[in-house]
Design a protein that fits this description.
Strand content: under 5%
CATH topology: Growth Hormone, Chain: A
Number of helices: 16
Radius of gyration: 22 Å
CATH class: Mainly Alpha
Order of helices and strands: EHHHHHHHHHEHHHHHHH
Shape: globular
CATH architecture: Up-down Bundle
Strand order of the largest sheet: 1-2
CATH superfamily: MFS general substrate transporter like domains
Largest sheet: 2 strands, parallel
Number of strands: 2
Number of domains: 1
């Protein structure tokens, strides 16, 4: 005899569980694809010296190439976030992964400045939809107290990819040219995309919030816990937010206290992204121009990236417990260190140590702001909340390489670029404290914000 239909609270079910095999598989899949996401976006910086020599590119051309990829990420973030909140996370992530794997490989065949501009824009467009959707999908499968932790763990993959870009370039470029680095990154990404196609689940919170596909919800919940024995005839609810079957509108990002939280998140994220891409795109060239060897420049940038990831990993548990106030700590440390590196004369060894420390804290701070980018939005608009924040932040990413190009071409001492960079962590710290005050007024760090559907 079939059991009577039940009401199953997905929010309570997920929040009351520890991480299991289902979660770890999802985290590993997301982590792997973000490794090559980070590798793809950073290898343009490390291959730039080879591309500059081979294709006769000047400093401003390189700045435009860096920024075209970031502009693509910004546009792609808006587009894929909208699609992800319409058709779901799974299909959108898989399409984006295959697209940027193919486009990364195709970049190896570019033979002109114009071709590089176009391919980097298209590649960035595909990548722009990847990270926010991966965050949203994982956030929706873990207890609320672990959301920032899981996002940070996934982004460790991104940082590993960015850190590997330097050594892999040093390994491949002398023999296979800069083209070999792009072929390596593109083919590895396509392998990961096949893994996503085979094993990536859809978000049950998203489906429940939209009142869609109860058979998929039941099957997925039974994979997480076979003892639940969920059925498509059961009623699936979310006790921590309202169901919202309506289409996304931008106004939902500014409902209730989100009208203050969203702008602060955007400003802080812009400042952090400007700092990260300023140092990431121009770091190797800045160190070379300061008379360090090309290999040293590559390894110093990679070490900074790895240390930033470790600092982000250290921060994540404090962020889950303390909320956005914890995010303000690293930028408050980075600010005076960057000023010291940029303004105080010092020995080369001391300079390397302090510059690595300061840029590592910049990287760690970036982990902090991105770890909360999607946490405070309800499921129905989470992909858009994280996607819009990430895309708007690309304003800083686009500006960073361009500002860097003009600073380096301005005649100022190159070392002053570190002092200019200090403005960014200062802005991030102020925004993080503002977000913390807003979240504190909600009563709990993860309290939901119900976004009403627009009137019919």
């Amino acid at each position: 005899m079939a059991s009577a239909p039940r009401s199953i609270d997905i929010a309570g079910f997920i929040d009351g569980r520890k991480l299991g095999g289902f979660n770890y598989r999802l985290i590993i899949l997301s982590w792997l694809i973000t490794v090559f996401d980070g590798f793809d976006m950073m290898m343009i910086s490390f291959t730039a010296p080879w591309m500059r020599d081979e294709l006769a590119l000047d400093t401003l051309m390189l700045g435009n190439i860096f920024s075209s990829g970031l502009f693509g990420m910004m546009v792609g973030g808006f587009a894929f976030a909208y699609i992800g909140d319409r058709i779901g996370r799974r299909q959108t992530i898989i399409c984006a992964a295959f697209a940027f794997g193919i486009l990364t490989t195709a970049t190896a065949f570019a033979r002109s400045y114009e071709a590089l501009l176009i391919l980097r824009f298209l590649d960035g467009f595909a990548i722009g939809g990847m990270l926010p959707l991966a965050w949203a999908l994982n956030i929706e499968y873990v207890p609320s107290k672990m959301r920032s932790t899981v996002v940070t763990v996934i982004m460790m993959g991104y940082s590993l990819g960015t850190a590997l870009a330097g050594p892999v370039t040093v390994w491949l470029a002398p023999t296979w040219g800069w083209e070999g680095v792009f072929v390596f990154g593109g083919l590895c990404t396509l392998v990961c995309a096949v893994g996503l196609l085979l094993w990536l689940p859809e978000s049950v919170r998203f489906l429940a919030s939209k009142g869609q596909k109860p058979e998929v919800i039941a099957a997925t919940l039974n994979k997480i816990d076979p003892a639940l024995n969920a059925s498509p005839s059961d009623r699936f609810i979310l006790s921590d937010e309202k169901q919202d079957k309506s289409n996304f509108t931008v106004g939902k990002l500014f409902h209730a206290d989100l009208k203050w939280l969203t702008p602060l998140l955007w400003i802080g994220y812009i400042a952090s992204t400007l700092a990260v891409y300023f140092k990431a795109n121009w770091g190797p060239i800045v160190y070379e121009d300061l008379h360090f060897s090309r290999d040293t420049a590559a390894y110093v940038s990679s070490i900074s990236g790895m240390l930033g990831a470790l600092l982000g990993l250290l921060l994540m548990r404090f962020t889950d417990k303390m909320g956005p106030y914890a995010v303000a700590v690293y930028p408050l440390v980075a600010f005076p260190l960057l000023l010291a590196v940029g303004l105080i004369p010092m020995a080369p060894t001391t300079f390397l140590i302090l510059s690595i420390a300061s840029t590592s804290f910049v990287g760690g701070a970036h982990f902090g702001i991105l770890s909360i980018a999607g946490v405070y939005y309800p499921s129905a608009i989470r992909a858009n909340g994280a996607g819009w924040a990430t895309s708007v932040a690309k304003i800083g990413g686009i500006a960073g390489p361009i500002i860097g190009a003009y600073v380096l071409a301005s005649g100022l001492p190159i070392v002053r670029s570190f002092a200019i960079l200090a403005i960014c962590p200062a802005a991030l710290a102020l925004c993080a404290m503002g977000i913390g005050a807003i979240v504190k007024r909600r009563g709990t760090v993860t309290a939901p914000v119900a976004v009403p559907a627009p009137a019919e």
